Amino acid sequence: MVLLMAAMMENLQQMQSQGLGQTQTQASGASSLSFMAPGNSYNPAVANLTMEHKDVATSSADKSDLKFRPVQFLKLDEQLGGKLSGAAVHFIEAGKKYDIDPKLLSAIAVHETGNGTSRAANEKNNIAGMMGKNGLRSYETVADSIYDMARNLRQNYLNQGKESIAQIGAKYAPVGAANDPTGLNNHWTTGVQRFYNTL
Fewer CB within 10 Å: N-end or C-end of the chain? Predict the structure, then answer.
């Protein structure tokens, strides 16, 4: 937390010295977050969101226990690896925006990517197995992928009455799906639940 505060202060001082004292937003309307860490130290918060992330309110159909709750930033951050390293802040912020437990978002990403080591994560910044018209979607940043996953979960799962990881998994990674020839979806619910319990 001290590193994050130091990085924020250094970034603010640099912006003021350059005459950029106001927060800039990109033309697309997306937020542009950027924190600089001092020297060569670890930087836990580089977002540079390139997509516009629309708001999706929590509906009355959401009776789940998977709504946003505070998590220990450092504990979450130290458990994330590969492309997920330093992404704890984005899981927390996306969780706040879409009223989803950041542990659920993190657990799905850890399971989907082998904790940030999958080809989809490394080549497409896709940390949630999100599909598009032509297969796996590509994202400019990991943060964009996190926010898109959170929006999708809020809009198409939690707001539709999916109340548990098992109910989400039945739709998110259905057993026997045509795009799962090796049967990995058989392990989705247990894998996500295991990571959720340990994060």
Answer: N
